[in-house]
Every structure is written in structure tokens, then in C-alpha cells.
UniProtKB/TrEMBL annotation:
Enzyme class per UniProt: lyase
PROSITE patterns: AA_TRANSFER_CLASS_1
Keyword Lyase annotated: yes
Family the entry assigns: Belongs to the class-I pyridoxal-phosphate-dependent aminotransferase family.
Cofactor(s) named in the record: pyridoxal 5'-phosphate
Gene3D superfamilies membership: Aspartate Aminotransferase, domain 1, Type I PLP-dependent aspartate aminotransferase-like (Major domain)
PANTHER family reported in the protein's UniProt record: 1-AMINOCYCLOPROPANE-1-CARBOXYLATE SYNTHASE 8, BIFUNCTIONAL ASPARTATE AMINOTRANSFERASE AND GLUTAMATE/ASPARTATE-PREPHENATE AMINOTRANSFERASE-RELATED
Transmembrane segments: none
Protein name: 1-aminocyclopropane-1-carboxylate synthase
Coiled-coil region list: none
Species assigned in the record: Perilla frutescens var. hirtella (Perilla citriodora)
Listed GO MF terms: 1-aminocyclopropane-1-carboxylate synthase activity; pyridoxal phosphate binding; transaminase activity
Pathway connected to this protein: Alkene biosynthesis; ethylene biosynthesis via S-adenosyl-L-methionine; ethylene from S-adenosyl-L-methionine: step 1/2
UniProt keywords, alphabetically: Ethylene biosynthesis, Fruit ripening, Lyase, Pyridoxal phosphate, S-adenosyl-L-methionine
Length: 470
């Protein structure tokens, strides 16, 4: 029996090196005791740094996770609840938390909020509401590899890249926006909007006021939508502070204009609270029609009632929520510094960043040529021989070969130190065995010399591992 085109087409993107790296990790995962030479997972933007804060709160508030209110069971009430408008108490707590993260400079109306099973569902639902199959959204590159699945796969919508480069720190510019718009027209694609992530995944940087203003000017002039995926808004650990698109809209008095209705925010608790398994996301839109349509569509991916109940209790504990955000940012900052410092000692630099759970790492000097083939060649060495699963820039549609996203918040400090040690040993031997030409690319790519040096450093590393175990 034949299957549907949707089931057999490959636009899901799971063949990308981003997902393949995860599969390789699954086959040989690092474990300090059981598999000390295994692959360390640095391709997963998970936040495991503040679980202790969540666990302490749970211990002090046993009712929240125990189907109870004031000691009385509410099991039956939660088991029957199925209203796709969501629990009012949870929506109130979530908009309050979103305001808190934005320094209370913006207020969100819970009536404009649609709950979804994570930002994955929120992004797809919005695309279903805003575009027809064959229409396009413009996205600045590099972008989150999951967007090929979330925005394109089931909706039939196309992504057209807004090309950003290292020459200006990957900033969005007016000419780059216009170029993408024209490129879409050349491909006969009607542009329905722009989607940005602020702070950016994979860059780990917040959008500047200048970029946000540019984006608003652009969507205003073209009469199109703007989706701002603000899933990392609570992870901003250094200045400049996070500025939400909603703040700029209000400051520029866009409230009574059409643009007000064409800006939509996506949020989730997967990163800021480190709960991707709970599947908690949301769409915030000023357009009533979008809110109504998205609410109906949310039937396909609701948040379970016990999750909503638990999190409404947690987030409406304002003291806890405020303290969590501050403490979590402090911990992210420390980790970020550890990774940046460690890589620097290996002669590797990162894009200067202030947010997120990862660094955008420049390994252009380790490529044997300025090509994506060389990037994948280096990536394979790093996965299979160095034992680190990181994400190559090409999986994020970066236009310059040699950039990699490296995550730092999904492991212990010891594991991060080991990862840094592995990369340092790799680079030491790499420098030793390969000569370079004037433009920084290695000339001597003799397979034998490389194999010899790898054997040496793999040996050295396992020796170090054994030493550590003692
Ligand atoms: C920019 C961005 N949007 C959406 C998602 C999906 O998040 P969720 O787990 O809430 O579906 C991610 C996850 O990595 C992301 O980085």
C-alpha cells in the first residue's frame, strides 16, 4: 500500500548533520564511569543548570505535583479538564512570567495567549494561520535546524534565507532583508513574513534595537507578518539586556496600526525553565483572528492539565520565579565563560555573545579548505575521533563554512572540562601535524600524517581519562 507524500517526502530534515550527530551520540554516549571514551553531547540546547531550584520548590510545595489543592485531591477535576483555552490560572501566571523576563516593561494580556505543546507546535500553528502552501517566510541565517521541520514540513511553506555573515557579527541589515525578499520573488514565492529568534539560536546574541526597528520598518513597508521566537528570552546573562519586539512596538506607538496585528511572539518553557519534556509553549498575538484560529488548532497539541496546574502554582510564586531567573542567568554566565575561556586556550574564538545555552564557535582556521565539504570533514573528526557532538554551521544554513554551535548547559562542569581538554589535545596535534598557507587554511592534508597524529592524541586522551579515574 502506498503512503502519503507527507509520510515519504524528506523535507522533515532529519537527515541533516544536526540530527545525525544525535544518532551517533546515542550509539556511544559518554558516561564518566561506564563509557569514559564515549561521545559528549554538545549538540543539544538543554538547560540542566538549575534543576536543584525546581526540585527544592517541588519539595516545599508537594500539593502542586500531587494533584492536590490545599491538601484536598483535585485528581478528578484535572483528569476531566480538556478546555483548549487552557487553565486561566496558568495563562495568568505565564504572562506574568513573560513580563518579568522583560523587566516588566511590557504587559501581556492572557486573552491573547494560545497554549501549545512547546514552541515547535507554536511555530507550526502560526505558520498554518499566516501562510498558504507555496508561500514563503524569510529567516536570517544561521537559524535553528528544527525550523525546516517546524515551518515547512507539514505546512508546505518555504523558507527563504536572509543571509547574515561574520563581517558584521551576523547582524540583520536592510540590504540583506531586501535581497531575500527579491530572491523569493525570483523564485515566484509570495513572502508572508519574517521569522527571527531573539535571542538567536544558534548565535547566542540578542537582537539590537536597531535590528528590531529595521524589522518593523520592513514588515510595515511590505505589509507582511513578523514572528519573534523568544524562547531564549530568559537566558540573557550579559548586557545588552533583552529587548522584546513588543517593547519596540509599544515605544513606537504602533498599537492602533495594522502592524500591531501582524507581530506574533512564540514562547516556551523548554529553555528558560529547562523543561522541554513538559511540552509547554505559547503563541502571543495581538490579532484576534489569529488567536481564535490558533486556539482551535491547539487541539492537536495541548498541554496536559496536570502540567498546567503544576506550573501555574510554580510560576505564580513570584518570589521563586524572580529568584530562579536571576540565579539561572548567573549559572549560564559562568558556564559560558568556562567554555569561551577553554576554547580560547585552544586558540579557538567564539562570536561574542550574551544569551542562550551555546556558543557560536569559529573553527575556520581548522578547515583544510574554505568549503562545506571541509566543514563536514572536520565535523566528522570532532564527532568520531574527538568524541564531541557539536552542530556544524551548515546544518543551521550558515553561508560561511567553519562555524559550529557548541552547547554548554546540558552537562556537568566536569564533563565540560573534559570536552575542553579533548578539543585542546585535538588542536595541539592538529597544529603539530598540519602546515598552513597564508590564508589560514591547512595545506598538508596527507591522510597518513593525520591518521598518525589522531592515534597519538586518542591514546593521550584515554591515558588522561585513566589518570582522572584514579
Ligand atoms: C529557536 C527555537 N525555537 C523552538 C524550539 C523548540 O522548542 P520546544 O521544545 O519548546 O518545542 C527550539 C528548541 O531548540 C529553538 O531553539
Amino acid at each position: 500500500m502506498t503512503l502519503s507524500k507527507k509520510a515519504t517526502c524528506n523535507s522533515h530534515g532529519q537527515d541533516s548533520s544536526y540530527f545525525l550527530g544525535w544518532q551517533e551520540y546515542e550509539k556511544n554516549p559518554y558516561d564518566e564511569l561506564r563509557n569514559p571514551n564515549g561521545i559528549i553531547q554538545m549538540g543539544l540546547a538543554e538547560n540542566q543548570l538549575s534543576f536543584d531550584l525546581l526540585e527544592s520548590w517541588l519539595a516545599e510545595n508537594p500539593d502542586a505535583a500531587g494533584f492536590k489543592r490545599n491538601g484536598e485531591s483535585i485528581f478528578r477535576e484535572l483528569a476531566l479538564f480538556q478546555d483548549y483555552h487552557g487553565l486561566p490560572a496558568f495563562k495568568n501566571a505565564l504572562v506574568q512570567f513573560m513580563s518579568e523576563i522583560r523587566g516588566n516593561k511590557v504587559k501581556f494580556d492572557p486573552n491573547n495567549l494560545v497554549l501549545t505543546a512547546g514552541a515547535t507546535s507554536a511555530n507550526e500553528t502560526l505558520i498554518f494561520c499566516l501562510a498558504e502552501p507555496g508561500e514563503a517566510f524569510l529567516l536570517p541565517t544561521p537559524y535553528y535546524p528544527g525550523f525546516d521541520r517546524d515551518l515547512k514540513w507539514r505546512t508546505g511553506v518555504e523558507i527563504v534565507p536572509i543571509q547574515c555573515t561574520s563581517s558584521n557579527g551576523f547582524k540583520i541589515t536592510a540590504p540583506a532583508l531586501e535581497e531575500a525578499y527579491q530572491l523569493a520573488h525570483k523564485r515566484n514565492l509570495k513572502v508572508k513574513g519574517v521569522l527571527v529568534t531573539n535571542p538567536s539560536n544558534p548565535l547566542g546574541i540578542t537582537l539590537t534595537r536597531n535590528e528590531l526597528n529595521l524589522l518593523l520598518d520592513f514588515i510595515d513597508a511590505k505589509g507582511i507578518h513578523l514572528i519573534s521566537d523568544e524562547i531564549y528570552s530568559g537566558t540573557v546573562f550579559n548586557s545588552p539586556n533583552f529587548v522584546s519586539i513588543m517593547e519596540i512596538l509599544v515605544n513606537r506607538n504602533y498599537m492602533k496600526t495594522e502592524v500591531w496585528d501582524r507581530v506574533h511572539i512564540v514562547y516556551s518553557l523548554s529553555k528558560d525553565l529547562g523543561l522541554p519534556g513538559f511540552r509547554v509553549g505559547a503563541i502571543y498575538s495581538n490579532d484576534e483572528m489569529v488567536v481564535a484560529a490558533a486556539t482551535k488548532m491547539s487541539s492537536f497539541g495541548l498541554i496536559s492539565s496536570q502540567t498546567q496546574y503544576l506550573l501555574s502554582a510554580m510560576l505564580s510564586d513570584e518570589k521563586f520565579a524572580q529568584n530562579y531567573v536571576v540565579e539561572n542567568q548567573k549559572r549560564l554566565k559562568n558556564r559560558h565563560e568556562m567554555l569561551v575561556r577553554g576554547l580560547k586556550s585552544a586558540g579557538i574564538s567564539c562570536l561574542k555573545s550574551n544569551a542562550g545555552l551555546f556558543c557560536w564557535v569559529d573553527m575556520r582556521h581548522l578547515l583544510t579548505s574554505n568549503t562545506f565539504e571541509a566543514e563536514i570533514e572536520l565535523w566528522k573528526k570532532i564527532v568520531y575521533q574527538v568524541g564531541l557532538n557539536i552542530s556544524p554551521g551548515s546544518s543551521c544554513h550558515c553561508v560561511e563554512p567553519g562555524w559550529f554551535r557548541v552547547c554548554f548547559a546540558n552537562m556537568s562542569e566536569d564533563t565540560l572540562n573534559l570536552a575542553i581538554q579533548r578539543i585542546k589535545s585535538f588542536v595541539d596535534d592538529y597544529d603539530y601535524s598540519l602546515s598552513r598557507n597564508g590564508d589560514g587554511f591547512s595545506q598538508n592534508s596527507s591522510k597518513n600524517s593525520r591518521r598518525k597524529s589522531f592515534t597519538k592524541w586518542v591514546f593521550r586522551l584515554s591515558f588522561h581519562d585513566r589518570e582522572r579515574e584514579r
